[in-house]
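Quick check before the chapter quiz. The format below is the same one you will see on the exam, so make sure you can read both the input and the output lines.
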Amino acid sequence: MTAVVAARRPMSRVSAPVAAGLALPRWFWVVAVVGVAGIAFFVRVRLLIQTGGLDGADGYDDGVYYAAADALVHGRLPYRDFLLLQPPGTIVALAPFAWFGSITHDPYGVVAARLCFIGIGALNACLAMAIVRRFGLVASALAGIGYAVYFPAAFTERSTLLEPLGTCGLLVAVLLADRAWRRPQVGMMLAGAAAGVAIGMRIWYVVPVALIAAFHWRSALRFLAGVAITASAIYLPFLIGSPANMVRQVVLDQLGRPRDTAHSPFKRASTYLGATNLHLSEPWSALLSVHKVGLGLLLGVIVCAAVALTVRGARLFPVTGIVTGVVLLVSPSFFLHYAALSAPWVVLTVAVGVSRMLRAVRSRRVRALLAMVLLAALVTLNLREVQLSRPSSPIPAAALRPAAQQVAGCVVSDDPQILAALDVLSRDLSHHCTVWPDVTGYTYDRDSVRVAGHVVVRKQNAAWQADVTHYLLSGEAVVIHRSATELDAASTRSVDSGRVLARSGSWTLHAVTH
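Here is the expected output.
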C-alpha cells in the first residue's frame, strides 16, 4: 500500500535530478564546497593584492561606495546631501564597515569590507555549484570551479563594488525558487526577498529578476511580493528623504550617460565572455588572436545555450544569459565589471550544456577525462589572466599620512579612497568638511554639458573645471591623482600652487592657499 501511495505522489520537477546528485557521500560535497570557496577567495585576493595591496587604489568605484557609506554613518543622506548615481543598497551594506573604520582607522574598515566582499564572491561560486548540482557532478564541478576562476566574475568581486551582492541575491533567489516546492508560500517569498536585495544594489538587476519570476509564473505573485518588500525597505527611506534628486541621479543621469564608442558590440561580448584581455603565450599568440578566441568562445557559448534550452529546469540560465547580454550591448557605458550581469548565467549555461553533451560519450573514463581537460584549460587561461591583470595601484600612505594627519583642517582629494588610505576620511566627515564621495560623478549630473547633442569632455568643460577646482581647494590640503579627473592646465596650476607638504613619486600633498 505504501508503495502505491508513493507511486501516486507527484514528483517535483527537481527531485529526480537532485536524487542523482546525492548519490555521492555528504562529506564529498562538503569538501567540494570548501575547495571551491578557497579557490574563489584566493583568485579574488590575488587580484586585489598583487599590485595595490589590500588598501590600495583599486579602480575608483569601490572607494566611492565606501566613502558614501562613511558619509551615511556621519549623518549625511545620499541624493540629498551628496551625489550618488546608484541605488543605496551597497552603501547600506558597507555602513557597518565604515562605522568600524570611523572608530578605529579608515584603512581597517576598507580592508575588512574588501575581504568581506571577496568572501561574498567565494559564496557566489558555491551557490553556482549548488544550483546545478541536480544536473550531475560534471555540471556542478564546471559551475563551481568555473565561476571561481572566471575572470570577469573574479575581477568584479575583488572589492566593494555593486555586483558581488547583486549576484549573490540573484543566485540565492534561483536556489530558493528551485527548492520552493517543499514550502511554496514561504520559499517563493524568501526567493523574492533575495532578488529584491539585487535590485537594491543596481537597477538593471530588475531584468534577471523579471525572468526568474516569469520562469516560476505559478508562484510569481509570492515571488514579486518578496521582491517588493525588500526593495522598498532599501529604497523608500532615501526616496522619502529626497525624491526628485534620487530619481534624477539614479535613473535620469544614468540614462543620459554618453555612448561608449571605444567598445564595439563584438568587443563588449568578448569582454563579458572573458576574451578581450586574454594573454596567450607563444606559439598560441601567433595562431590565435583575441578576435578569434572571442569568436570561438561566443560560438561555444551559443552551442551550450542551445543544449541547455533542451534541459528541463535549466532553461532560465541561457535565456537570462542572452537577455542580460543584450542589456550589456545596448548600455550607454561599459566597463569590465559590468560583465558580472551576465557572468553567472554564462557559467551556469556552459556547465549544463557541456555536461549534457558529454553524456553522448559512452565511456565513463573518456567522459571524465574530457571534463578534466576542459576544466584544466578553463583554470589555466583564467588564472593566467588573473596573474597578468593590474587592476590596482599602491597608495604611498606611509609617506603621505604623517603630513596629512598634521593638517589642521580638511584634506581633499579627487579620489575618496586616498582619503581613507591617509586615515582622514572619517575625520573630515566628523569635522563637517565638504566631501564628494563621487567626484567625477558630477560630470553626469549638474556639470554635464552638451553642444550640438555631443557631451563636452571634462578638460574642455568650463563648468566642470570651475566646480571641481572649487571643491579641491575647499580644504586646507589637497592631493590629486586620477587622470580621469581631467583637470586643464589652469586648474592644475591652481591646485598645485600651494607648498608641498609631502611627496612620494607622482603623489603630492599640497597645502591650499586661501
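If your answer matched, good. The radius of gyration is 25 Å.
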